[in-house]
Specification:
The complex is a heterodimer of chains A (637) and B (133).
Chain A lengths: L1 H10 L21 H36 L3 H16 L3 E8 L4 E9 L2 E2 L5 E3 L2 H9 L3 E3 L3 H8 L12 E9 L2 E10 L8 H53 L3 H15 L4 E8 L4 E9 L2 E3 L4 E3 L2 H9 L3 E3 L3 H7 L13 E9 L2 E10 L8 H67 L8 H31 L8 E5 H18 L3 E6 L5 E4 L1 H18 L4 E8 L3 E8 L31 H11 L4 E5 L5 E8 L7
Parallel strand pairs in A: 16-18
Antiparallel strand pairs in A: 1-2, 1-7, 2-3, 2-4, 5-6, 6-7, 8-9, 8-14, 9-10, 9-11, 12-13, 13-14, 15-17, 18-19, 19-21, 20-21
Chain B lengths: L5 E4 L3 H14 L5 E4 L5 H7 L6 E5 L7 H10 L7 E6 L4 H10 L3 E4 L7 H9 L4 E3 L1
The chains are: A alpha+beta (637), B alpha/beta (133).
């Protein structure tokens, strides 16, 4: 029926509602039976057509309303007004019934020529029960007084008793959801069968429309809720993002507290930290009576604290707050009032309750919905993570500070040890060297040999001290350069070559010079550059048994490239990274004298100058160590 | 080499002996004096038979340390041409930087390098600033 009407309605949108003409109830004349029959037939057809038109019109109007007014009351009003227009009755009611609460509610009421508005809920009466049971229209066209008694209807004050009444149940999915009542107070038998059938059609059309609107409203409500949740999610996301960057604990409390203020129907917000070791609570965030409060006092645990720690569960108080206050022995903060609703969410880190977040409403009960509780729990868990991060960060800072202190102590120790060792070494090395050179008196070859050995050992000891001091400074990040401008690299190269030429000669190695005649003047730590060159050259000589050791130095556009190339055993690629680690030497070269720190120090010294140091070698094909010094001084701090 | 006069302030006996031998065996001169401490320093400096052209100062010496002695010497215009050199066992760059900033004319690190000692002294006397640490 509704489907058909709906399609017709669409075709006849321009149909105007027509007033129902007063039904002529004239008795047919005996003389013109046929005429009378025909007249009756015409009248019936006319009535049918009019009914149909009216029906189409109301459905059309209702559908238009559905498109424009998405408000259920507007539909009740529309249908009520239509019924008034069509039937011209003295009284029209539209009621909905709620079977769960067994109540009726007047959605539309027209009486004594005017509309009445009421939101009162009326209990079911016998008539209601009857309509629910029969699911059929009830027509009382005469003897209404008897019907009042039968259905225990209360007579409405100040209204005339009707003479004819129709009750049409509103049916949805086979259930009675309400009814329409049309009343005539002037005469009995005011409503014909076709009136009843028309009203029934209206009722079913209206109910379908109302149901559609209800579904639409429900969808809107869900959509709105989803939007609300989305907005909350967005806030949580932004809070989480911001929390992730916060490593200051109080900043985390403030951020979360401030954000919660805007989200919950709460006058009071509290974030409390528990210390299970000292069994004390500390208020980290307090917002009450429209402003922040700062409390530094420590409070002992109370029953609520114990409860949250024991259960690890959220506690929601939406009713009976007074009893809970008594049960948990809570104490009122001076100047504040007891809440009517509250949520307490424990702050869990791992399995440990570290505190709580609480929102409280002092005005209403049932202030917090399940989704509020969920949202607050989300805040709590984000905050727990952030607090834990901050704690770990603080711990890390402490460890780092401690490590730095230990490192400083180590460097300080090495520095003073180096100082203390140099004074006696000044005597030892110089005395032995003077003796070995015969400056103090003649020495025989055997004595000279021993003195030379002593001198070498003493110098080795000195190198060891220097290297250990250097590496400790490098590792502490405290290596500083003693930079001079306009250092003549050629002079430095020559000085180092003269130092090692003797060593090369002793081993029968050829020391090859490949020095660019136009080496530029650069800014560098002269002593450190020499140290690197000396280290690379003495290593090359140390590890090469025959052949050559070449020192090359070339000017390139932005740097000077040094290379120390030997014809020694070479370094297998697998070991090439290891040789730059402190205290590393090739396994097979363990017997060779050295601290194993030289290359590590050299690389750090070159890097401190803004250059690079690297090795290129194949096992059995010699090794080539390269390093660069930039022409433009780049200080590495 | 013509070392007019050299003054060395050093509290360690064997280090004093090293200097004595260096002066006599490598520079071949007896024109030097060594103080074992820094007490009453300026008076003793003025009492020297000759105004020294070069003063080598151990830094960790008492009662006045090397920096204090440097300031005393610099404060007296009589010693405006005197080269004041730190002879130090503290070789960290920060410490050397401190020596430079304080106004030393150069520094020689311990242990002293026998082979280069005469040339370093020569360069210092010529007015070159040498930091042989």
């Amino acid at each position: 029926m509704s489907k058909e009407s709906s399609s017709i309605g669409k075709q006849d949108r321009r149909l105007k509602i027509r007033k129902r003409p007063t039904i002529a109830v004239s008795a047919p004349s005996g003389m013109a039976l046929e005429n009378g029959r025909l007249r009756d037939e015409i009248e019936r057809l006319r009535k049918e057509t009019e009914q149909h038109n009216a029906e189409l019109a109301i459905i059309n109007k209702v559908q238009a309303a559905l498109a424009s007014k998405l408000d259920m009351q507007a539909i009740y009003d529309l249908v009520g007004d239509e019924i008034r227009d069509l039937f011209n009755p003295q009284s029209v009611w539209i009621l909905t019934i709620d079977r769960a609460t067994r109540t009726r509610q007047l959605k539309y009421s027209f009486e004594n020529g005017q509309r009445y508005y009421t939101s009162a809920l009326l209990p079911f009466n016998k008539l209601t029960e009857y309509l629910i049971k029969t699911k059929k229209p009830l027509v009382i066209n005469e003897n209404f007084t008897e019907a009042i008694a039968r259905f225990e209807m209360a007579s409405v004050a100040d209204t005339a008793q009707p003479k004819s009444v129709v009750f049409i149940p509103l049916l949805a999915a086979g259930e009675v959801k309400g009814f329409i009542s049309v009343q005539n107070i002037e005469r009995e038998n005011a409503f014909s069968e076709s009136d009843v059938s028309l009203l029934s059609t209206f009722a079913s059309s209206m109910y379908i429309t109302l149901e559609n609107i209800r579904l639409f409203d429900e969808t809107q409500r869900l959509l709105k809720e989803t939007e609300q949740r989305n907005a909350e999610l967005a806030i949580i996301n932004s809070v989480q993002a911001e929390l992730a960057s916060k490593l200051d604990v109080q900043a985390i409390y403030d951020l979360v507290g401030d954000d919660i203020r805007g989200l919950f129907n709460a006058q009071s917000i509290l974030i409390v930290r528990f210390d299970q070791y000292t069994r004390t609570r500390q208020i980290k965030y307090s917002f009450e009576k429209g402003q922040r409060h700062y409390v530094s006092d420590l409070f002992p645990f109370n029953k609520l604290t114990e409860h949250l720690i024991a259960t690890k569960n959220t506690m929601v108080i939406n009713q009976g707050a007074e009893a809970k206050v008594a049960e948990f022995g809570m104490v009122l903060t001076p100047g504040t009032e007891w809440m009517k609703s509250a949520v307490y969410v424990p702050l869990l880190v791992g399995e440990e309750v570290k505190g709580l977040i609480s929102v409280q409403n002092v005005e209403q009960e049932n202030a917090f919905s399940e989704s509020d509780v969920n949202l607050l729990s989300t805040f709590a868990s984000s905050m727990s993570v952030a607090l834990e991060n901050a704690r770990l960060y603080e711990e890390q800072l402490q460890v780092a500070a401690e490590l730095k202190r230990v490192d400083r102590m180590k460097t300080q120790f090495l520095s003073s040890m180096s100082h203390e060792l140099r004074t006696p070494l000044n005597a030892i090395i110089n005395f032995v060297e003077m003796l070995a050179r015969g400056m103090i008196g003649p020495v025989n070859p055997e004595q000279e040999e021993l003195l030379d050995q002593t001198l070498n050992s003493s110098k080795h000891l000195l190198h060891l001290i220097n290297d250990v001091l250097d590496i400790s400074k490098i590792q502490a990040g405290r290596l500083s350069l003693f930079t001079e401008e306009g250092v003549n690299l050629r002079e430095e190269v020559e000085a180092v070559l003269s130092l090692v030429s003797g060593l090369a000669q002793e081993k029968g190695l050829q020391l090859v010079r490949d020095i660019d005649p136009h080496l530029p003047m650069i800014s560098c730590d002269r002593r450190r550059v020499r140290q690197v060159l000396l280290n690379l050259l003495s290593n090359a000589i140390k590890f090469t048994e025959q052949g050559t050791v070449t020192l090359s130095a070339k000017k390139r556009p932005r740097e000077v490239l040094f290379a120390v190339i030997d014809t020694g055993p070479g370094i297998p690629p697998a070991k090439q990274a290891l040789i730059f680690e402190p205290f590393m030497q090739g396994e097979e070269e363990k017997e060779i004298q050295g601290t194993g720190l030289g290359l590590s120090i050299s690389r750090s010294l070159v890097q401190a100058h803004g250059g690079e140091l690297w090795v290129e070698s194949q096992s059995g094909e010699g090794a080539a160590f390269f390093f660069t010094l930039p022409l433009q001084e780049r200080r590495i701090s | 080499m013509d070392v007019d006069y050299l003054l060395y302030v050093e509290d360690d006996p064997s280090n004093r002996l090293v200097m004595r031998l260096l002066m006599e065996k490598t520079l071949g001169t007896k024109n030097y004096t060594i103080f074992e401490d820094s007490a009453n320093f300026m008076a003793r400096l003025r009492d020297l038979p000759t105004r020294p052209s070069i003063v080598l100062l151990d830094i960790h010496i008492a009662p006045f340390n090397g920096f204090q002695l440097l300031r005393m010497i610099r404060a007296d215009p009589v010693y405006v041409d005197t080269k004041v050199i730190a002879l130090t066992a503290s070789v960290m760059n920060e410490e050397v930087e401190k020596l430079r900033e304080s106004g030393f004319d150069g520094a020689i690190g311990k242990p002293i390098t026998l082979s280069t000692f005469p040339s370093v002294i020569e360069r210092l006397l010529k007015g070159e600033r040498v930091w042989q640490i």
